[in-house]
Amino acid sequence: MSKLIDLRMGLFLAALFIVTVLVPIASTLDEGSAVAIPSYLIPLMGKYLCYAILAVALDLCWGYAGILSLGHGAFFALGGYAIGMHLMREIGARGVYANPDLPDFMVFLGWDELPWFWYGFDWFPFAAVMALLVPGALAFVFGWFAFRSRVSGVYLSIITQALTFALLLAFFRNEMGFGGNNGLTDFRDVLGFSLSAPSTRIALFVLTALALAACLVIAKAITVSKAGKVLVAVRDAESRTRFMGYRVENYSVFVFTVSAMMAGLAGALYVPQVGIINPGEFAPANSIEIVVWVALGGRGTLVGAAIGALVVVAVESWLTANFPDLWLFALGALFIVVVLWMPNGILGLVEKLRFRRAKAPAKTEAPA
Amino acid sequence: MSAQLFLDGVHRSFDGFKAINNLTLSVDKGDLRAVIGPNGAGKTTMMDIITGKTRPDGGEVLWNMSTDLTRLDEAAVANLGIGRKFQKPTVFETHSVEDNIRLALKAPRGVFATLFHRSDKAEEARVTALLDQIRLTHLRTEDAANLSHGQKQWLEIGMLLAQEPDLLLVDEPAAGMTDAETMETAELLKSIAGQRTVIVVEHDMDFVRALDCRVTVLHQGSVLAEGSLDHVSARDDVIEVYLGR
Ligand SMILES: Nc1ncnc2c1ncn2[C@@H]1O[C@H](COP(=O)(O)OP(=O)(O)OP(=O)(O)O)[C@@H](O)[C@H]1O
Ligand SMILES: [Mg+2]
Q1: ipTM over 0.95
Q2: What residue ranges do the domains of chain A occupy?
Q3: pLDDT of B194-221, one tens digit each?
C-alpha cells in the first residue's frame, strides 16, 4: 500500500537528524561564540521533543482512529512517575534525611517501610519497562471496557478527561505513596551519570530525538498497514466495518494502548530532563493542550502533530517569558484560528500552498 | 427441506410500535429472493435483526438450522458468511476505491493479521477483477468520497462480493442509479444467485421484475404474501397496502 517514509516524513526526520547532530556540537562551543547553546537550554529542547512524541501518540489514536482522548496527559504522567520512582531510589542515602532505604518524603511522613509498589524500581530496566507497561495496561483495561460497551465520540472524550482528573486527585494524596503534592524531585543521577552534567543532558536530548523518530516511524508503519486502513475505516464508517466482520473494539483497544505507551515513553524521557514530576501533570488542561497541538499541526499527519507541538510550546515559552498574562488568551485564539481557517492545520496549509503553486497554470481547481 | 436462513416468529417493537411482528420467513441456499413492501414495513429492521445490529424481543433467526444469529454481534454474523449492503450507500470515503475493495476481501480479520498483512499477486488480481466487474477500474485510485451516488452503490456491491459471503442482504441497491445501471445490477445479482443466496429489498418494480424471482411482501412487520411477482401483485390485499397509503 502506501510508502513508509513519504516526503514530509523524510524532510522532518532529516531536519530532526541535523538538529540532533548540531545541538550537541553547539553546546560544546566556547560561550563567546555566536551559535553556542548554553547547557541549561538542552533539557528545555529535550522537553519540547517529549511533547512532540506525546502529540504523535495522540494523533495516532485521534487522527487515524477517531478516538479523541482528553486523557493522554495521564499516560504521560504515569510514564514520568515510573522513571521518577527510579530516580528517587537512585538518590539513596544522599537525601536530606540520609535514609538509605526510604525516599525523603516517606521519612517525612513517618513511614518506616517501603510500600510494595515501590519494589523493583531500584532496578532501572524494571522502571523503564513499567514506564511503558503501566500506561499501556491502564489504556488496555480502560479501553477494553469503554470500547466493548461502544462508548465513543464525546462520551469517550469525557470519560478520558475524568480518568486524568481522578488520577490528579489520587496522586495529590500523601497516602498514595507518590510524594503527594510535591511529587518526586531532587533527583541526582541516572544510571550513575549526574543529571546536571552537560554530557548527560546531551545524551538525554539525543535519546529523546531518537525516540521521537522511532515513534514517528512506528506510528507511520501502523497507519500504512492494512490495520491502519481498518482504523480509518472505523473512524469514517464504524458500522460498515463491523458488518464486514472486523471487531472494531479490538482495533480501538489496540491503537489506544499503543498510543498510551508512546505517551508513557514521552513522560519517561521528560522527567529526567525537567527534574521533577508532580500531580500537576495530570491536570485536565494539559490533556486538552495536546489536542490543540495536534489540531494546529494537522490532524492525521503524524509529522504535523509533532510540528504543532513544537510550534505551540515554543510560542508558549516566549509568551510566558515576555507577556505572562497573554498565554492563555493566545492559546484560545490559536485554537479558534485553527478551527475556523485551518481545518487541516499547518501541514494542511503548507500542502495547499504547494498544491496551488504546482497547479497554477491549470484552469480548473481540483474538487475539494 | 432445510432452509439456510430461517426467521421464526420474530418480534421487535420500538417504543411500543411493532416494527417486526411475528415475522416468519425461510430462504433456501442459492435462492434469489426479493422483499418488497411500503415504507416502514420493517424491511431494513429485518436485515438489522439478521445481521446482529438489532436484537429482537422474541423469536429465533436460524442459520443453517443450527446457529441462532440473534445471540451474535455484527462481526460474528459477518464472519459466518453473511454480508450486507446498506440502504444508504456506505463506503469508506477517505479511502481509495481499491482500498475499499481490499479491506472487504475475504481474509483474516484480526488486528495482528491485518497489521502484518502483505498483499500479493493473487490479491491484486482479485481486486482488479472485482473493479472490472463493478466497472470502476478507471477510478481505482480515486477517493471513494468523489464517486457519484450510483458509483458508490456499485462500490458497495463490489465490497460485498469481495467478502465472498454465503448470503448477501442487499438493501435498495438501485436507488440513485440510471435505468441502464438498474438493469445491470439486476443481472449481476441474478448471476450471483445460485452459488450464493441473495435477499434484495427494493421499491423499484421494474427492477424486481427483472430479478424474476420469488417475492415476499412485508407489511407492518410480517409477511403479507409470497410468490411470483405476478401472483402477489394480483392479490387484493397487496394492492390495497400499496394504494392505501
Ligand atoms: N432504531 C429504531 N428506533 C425507532 N424506530 C425504528 C428504529 N428502526 C426502525 N424503526 C421504525 O420501524 C419501522 C420500520 O422501519 P424500517 O426501516 O425497517 O422500514 P423499511 O421497510 O426498511 O422502510 P423503507 O422502505 O422506508 O426503507 C419504521 O416505522 C421505523 O421508524
Ligand atoms: Mg429500509
Answers
A1: no
A2: 7-358
A3: 889 999 999 888 999 999 999 999 999 9
Minimum mean pLDDT among A65-79, A107-121, A237-251, A347-361: which range?
Answer: A347-361
- Per cent of chain A over pLDDT 90 is 75
Residue B77 CA, ligand 1 centroid: distance in Å? 21
Sheet of B197-201, strand order: B82-85, B167-171, B197-201, B32-36, B214-219, B222-227
Angle at B47 between CA B44 and CA B51, to 5 degrees: 140
pLDDT at A189: 92
Q: In chain B, where are the structural domains located?
A: 1-80+213-245, 87-169+177-196
Could you tell which of B45, B171, B172, B241 is best to mutate to test the pocket of ligand 1, judged by most ligand atoms within 8 Å of the CB? B45
Q: Give the separation between CA A218 and CA A265, rounded to whole angstroms.
A: 13
Higher local confidence (pLDDT), B165 or A33: B165
pLDDT at position A222 over 90 = yes
The confidence score (pLDDT) of residue A364 equals: 40
Q: How far is the CA of A162 from the centre of ligand 1 (A)?
A: 36
Ligand of minimum distance to the alpha carbon of B21:
1
Task: Tell me how far the alpha carbon of residue B238 lies from the centroid of ligand 2, in angstroms.
Answer: 18
Residue of the CA atom closest to atom 8 of ligand 1: B45
Cα-flanking dihedrals φ and ψ of residue A346, to 5°? -60, -45
What CATH number is given for A7-358 in this structure? 1.10.3470
**What's domain B87-169+177-196's architecture?**
3-Layer(aba) Sandwich (3.40)
Look at ligand 1, atom 2, and give the residue with the nearest C-alpha: B14
For B65, counting Cβ atoms within 10 Å of its Cβ (0-12 exposed, 13-18 middle, 19+ buried), the class is exposed
Maximum distance among all Cα pairs of chain B, rounded to whole angstroms: 59
Q: Which of A222, A246, A254 sits opposite B75 (nearest CB)?
A: A246
Atom in ligand 1 nearest the alpha carbon of residue B218: 21
Helix ranges, chain A (H): 7-28, 41-59, 72-91, 104-108, 124-148, 153-172, 198-224, 226-236, 238-243, 248-274, 284-297, 303-322, 327-341, 345-359
CATH 3.40.50.150, applies to B1-80+213-245: no
> How high does pLDDT run on average in chain A?
91
DSSP-derived letter for residue A32 is T
Nine cell digits for residue B92: 469508506
Residue B1: the pLDDT is 55
B78, B91, B116 ranked by CB distance to A245: nearest: B78
CB contact under 8 A, B75 and A226: no
Average pLDDT over residues A39-64: 95
Q: Residue B109: which of A222, A232, A247 has the nearest Cβ?
A: A247
* Type of residue at A148: R
Query: d(Cα A327, Cα A169) in Å, to the nearest integer?
Result: 26
pTM above 0.90, yes or no: yes
Cα torsion angle, A192, A195, A196, A202, sign: positive
Could you report the per-residue pLDDT of A262-293, keeping only the tens digit for each? 999 999 999 999 999 999 999 999 999 999 99
Closest-approach residue (CA) in chain B for A252: B111
Pairing relation of β-strands B58-63 and B5-14? antiparallel
- Check for a shared fold between B1-80+213-245 and B87-169+177-196: yes
DSSP string, B48-107: HHHTTSS--SEEEEEETTTEEGGGS-HHHHHHTTEEEE-SS----TTSBHHHHHHHHSSS
